[in-house]
Structures
1.
Amino acid sequence: MKTIRIRKFTMLSLFFIFLMPWIFLVVAHFVETKTFRFEMTDSQQNNLDETIQLIEANSENWTDPAWQNQLNHHLQKMNMGVSIFSEANKVIYQTSAKQGFKETEEFSVIQDGNVIGRVAIYQSNSRVIPMIAAFTGLIIAFLIIGLAMKRLIINPLEQLSLGARKLSKEDFNVKLPSSRITEIAEVRNGFQVMVAELKESFQKQVELEDERRFLIAAVAHDLRTPLFALRGYLDGLEQGIAQSPEKMAKYVAVCKEKSAQLDRLVEDLFTLTKAETFEKKLNKKMVDLSQVLKQSIHTLRPLAQQKNIHIVESAFEHNCIISGDPYLLERAINNLLDNAVRHTPGSGEIVVQCYKDVDQAIFTVRDTGKGFSAEELRRAFEPLYRGEVSRSRSTGGAGLGLAISKRIIRQHGGDLTAGNHPDGGALLKGWIPLAKTSQLLEGI
Ligand SMILES: Nc1ncnc2c1ncn2[C@@H]1O[C@H](COP(=O)(O)OP(=O)(O)OP(=O)(O)O)[C@@H](O)[C@H]1O
Ligand SMILES: [Mg+2]
């Protein structure tokens, strides 16, 4: 839509306010005088002369009704009025009074040296009606400008203020009318963008709030389960239910296992919160991602060996240099390998890859377990989500591993995705941007 600046609008309004009275004045004058000239025209002067001559030449007929009738016709044609008085100042003849007529000529008629009468001629006063018309034009101009201002300026501003009040009550259903005034249209567009962004951030906040509430409920639940078990066994010990030393040892072992479970849960929650809170405070240095993977495999190998699982390093490219925090990265990859070991049946295989692609360091962890179900694929990265199998296991984790890994990888500017390999088994794929030359020189 074409818009005009407020300065231009004001200038046009002023011009219009000056122009309208003039148009009305000129039109009224023209309607009245049939001419655009404001001073007496030659034909008007001629008419006047003709009338004076007619009256002077017929002084003996002044009282004759036939002549008066003829004069009346003449005067109507000329748009004039006349009063004829006798020498004793008595009215002999007078046209009916007309509004807006003014006396333009008055003279005495003399015959043989004697004053026989006095004549006054009235012509239309071409000022009054045009002035009234001009004033009307001025009022109409003010009305039109007022209406235009209301529609173009006041209404949109009122809508903006209404919108702002609605926003303060978290009502984002704000519809603003467009304006042909550039400045107001700009404010309106800015306001519209602000409403859209506020709406988005409000929705995000609601979602975050939901997630936080869910997390707290889930954490409370997960802390309560081992705590209940712990209390039960400790009560049992206190009440002397475990009489034999073997039974006592079993009770203590369960208590230790439960406290270890609690310890792990709290530790994982702490890592997750830390990953969220200190997002920008990574302890970054130049790291070879293949070395991190190797270190992680080294840590998990004993666990894999217990189940006779092979961890194979395939397509391992060295010098996948990235800028990152080696401790956090190792934690991220440990979680993936830990899952792979847990979900791979005995004598299975875990294949780990690491390679470069354009400006990314890519790694994959594939196992020979049963892979992710559709529901798990959708929710695996949700904090505290556990698949059915993991949930039913008494020693199952808290469902934080993948959430932590994804957050750590994202903190490094990359991402982590979960899927299934076409030949079966879960396939986790992650990427992190390779260090830039400038970073390599600076060593971070
Ligand atoms: N390699 C895998 N194969 C099949 N399913 C998996 C695999 N890795 C993860 N999952 C599924 O994804 C869910 C979430 O994994 P995640 O690592 O976040 O939690 P967890 O392993 O259950 O607990 P935690 O890692 O906190 O000890 C798991 O419960 C499991 O159902
Ligand atoms: Mg896990």
2.
Amino acid sequence: MKKIDNDTYEILAPIDPHSHFRSPAQIGDAVFNVVVDENSRHYDVVYAEPNTFLDQSDLKHHIEHADDVLKYRTLLQERQKGFGGRASIRVLAKLTHNTTPEMIRALVQLGVAGMKIYPENVTTGSSHGGISDFFHRLLLECLRTCEELGLPVQVHPEYPGEFSMRKEFLFHRVIGTYCALFPKLRLFVEHITDRRTLDLIQVLSKKYPVHGTIASHYFDLTLDDVLGRVDNHCRPNPKEPEDREALILAATGGESCFLYITDSAPHLWKNKHLSDDECAGVFNPSRIAIPWTFEIFEKRNALHMFERFTVDNPSKAYGLTHSGREIRLIRKRWTVERLADPTGDKERSLTPFRFRKDLEWQIAE
Ligand SMILES: [Zn+2]
């Protein structure tokens, strides 16, 4: 990080190993283009989550097979070229009860970024292909294969069927058992919201290659911000102010077991506000997520830890080499607005994180 003056910094472009790009079949062509740009623009590397369908006639078919990863990666990279995007976009595949070790080997050959486990019915896109039996024989064989191949496995850490405020804590038993069964498995416990999970990761990471990721909207939101405000609805749901404080301390503390993510998860306005289906996720594009995280680190006198959290820790954990690309942040207050659909249709617009709130910093384009 280079401090040019009090109001200008040059930083290494962060790495975001957890973002939702959706697909043209899911949000339409024009909005998809907006999302590809907004979710990737200022990153060095960004990972696309696999809970999306590419074909309108087959909503239950997510990114699971080598073919799907190839198709999705090509689609994302082609769209990105259209606006000169520079981030390297990598794609994850969903680990379901139908996944086999052979499928995982084929995915690795194709350069998949990792596998993702969604417990059944805990979040968007987990009502099909979600895991209902965490210790099923075939699933354990797949995890053994990931361990042998050194393939990262991301997990959404919530136990199905439990009370929302306890789901994450009750998932600890699965994490602990996976570590004991597969001591070399590169496990990523995603978007921590419960302070007890931070403690668990700190302890486990001393012995196992386990990491915890922290999404920057949880530096802001608590349960009170979600009640009655569907734009802030996300899974796991934000918890208590004490959890939010613990997440900020973990991120700014610089420990190598904690990494930056956005979990940027756009939903069309009409789906968030008018649909009967649950639409969990906060849209947190790079031009909001990065200045917001920077603001938090500055307020905590922790700017010296910013690149550790957003670049060093993710690179090391995922075995990535940073390209050296830099972005410039300037101190200039601005107000976050809704992102219009290019056709001007409000129902197809996206409401981002910090909507109608101010940010202290912005990225110089
Ligand atoms: Zn996610």
3.
Amino acid sequence: MAEKPQVVVIGAGPAGLTAAFELVKRDVPVTVLEGDAMVGGISRTAEREGWRFDIGGHRFFTKVPEVEALWHEILPDEDFMMRPRMSRIFYDGKLFDYPLKAGNALGNLGILEAIRCVLSYMWVRVRPPKDQTKFEGWVASRFGWRLYDHFFRTYTEKLWGVPGSELEADWAAQRIKNLSLFSAIWNALRPGRNQKDITSLIEEFQYPKYGPGMMWETAAKKVEAGSGHIVLEEKVRTVHWEPGKGVVGVTTVVTGGYGPGAGAPEAKRTDLGAEKRYDGDQFVSSMPLSSLLQSLDPKPPAEVLTAAQSLKYRDFITVAVVVPESVGFPDNWIYIHSPEVKVGRIQNFGSWSPYLVQDGKTCLGLELFVSVGDETWTKSDDDLLAQAKRELEILGFAKPEQVERGFVVRMPKAYPFYDAAYKGNVDVMRRWMEENTPNLHPVGRNGMFRYNNQDHSMFTAQLTVQNIVDGTHHDVWDVNVEEDYHEAASPTSSSEPKAGLPEDAAVA
Ligand SMILES: Cc1cc2nc3c(=O)[nH]c(=O)nc-3n(C[C@H](O)[C@H](O)[C@H](O)COP(=O)(O)OP(=O)(O)OC[C@H]3O[C@@H](n4cnc5c(N)ncnc54)[C@H](O)[C@@H]3O)c2cc1C
């Protein structure tokens, strides 16, 4: 290996760009290969007709000092804002404060229903659900069937696309630690309640003025200004390795971006379909772990391929609509628990940043949790916009004529799906790489099949660069494994919906 290794990074999302940024700081030559026509990955800020909006909304919050420092190294302080956090739950035609306040909760549920919920809770104390290995039984055993039906069932099924009786209880056990809504209802109802138990979720987070994409667009410029080069619209199709040597190179195919449906601007490349080869000494990959293992040439053993093919994901669509500012709401987002609509959450980007509103107009993001190829994913943009207008009207948020225009962004593999087999499958792949391709370093969220936020995605990349260049031996797979630490330590680091409830307390 040369004194300074030639590094190839796959993907220009937060993890890939962090790796490149850290390498450039050490003056190491690096080529970043990005399949799309823009940088930022899931943390991009899409731009259409002058409107900027996130894939979800991306809060910047971390307990990792190295990541916090890097954010401020990339963007000057004046580009960051501190924003207040607010979100509510829309259920049964009403908005529930979150965290719940006794008066608001009782008024919304009604005293009779509140009593029924308590009785239902008492019933499961006597007759616990038989199967508590699944999400439904786990939650019902702790909160009663009535609360499960009101607040967990619909949202879970929207988010994961499977009944709660098929989701692993792990989800609940790991993610729903601070069941704030339900603790709050319980606290609100039981005598001698102590509202101080409920952590206030109206907190602040950092947010770049023009969205998270601003961070990644700036990082990309800084990489290009140093020893790095970013190649857009080239997707890695084949990863070449040799026994005893590890990975020696990758072959890309010119994609022309993933198209406007991905929220990327017009593709610029004209050599569509052309193949290019990039050789190197070290390879950092933030492409989905399952695709990485399937791209290997020669193929790994059948057991490894089967593990790769078994990983599942949940996909995501945002329908961003431009409406009068008066239609907006003060919340950053509202969880939509109503079963009569498909939308799972609605963002008001005007509440994220005043720089994202224009001339008395704001942009709302209607979020749909989908699976690639399903009936919603395959709808035309026009049909999705029509559905968004219809659902805004059903919910009483806006009339169709108030929607001035709309844009659709599709994001495949937005969420790793933790099924019963995922851990074993990831271990099989990891073990094989450690033995056969030690110079191939998976990083980031899909790269490691980890429910990582930006900060942990970035941190895995920072540690990997230290391992490659500085000779450290960090176990990158240890980042974000300690859920206890993570959830307790960073209660507001994400706006991601996790398990099937309007959580903000449990993040990853
Ligand atoms: C709805 C939602 C809300 C979220 N909210 C927050 C939040 O509030 N705060 C927070 O910190 N995090 C949040 N996250 C998580 C955050 O988006 C991710 O942690 C982060 O983007 C992961 O970075 P990454 O670089 O690992 O992966 P990605 O962002 O997925 O980037 C990977 C990149 O690799 C490229 N790529 C893939 N395959 C190939 C290939 N074969 N060849 C070349 N390039 C390829 C992709 O195009 C992409 O650009 C949220 C996520 C979602 C889905």
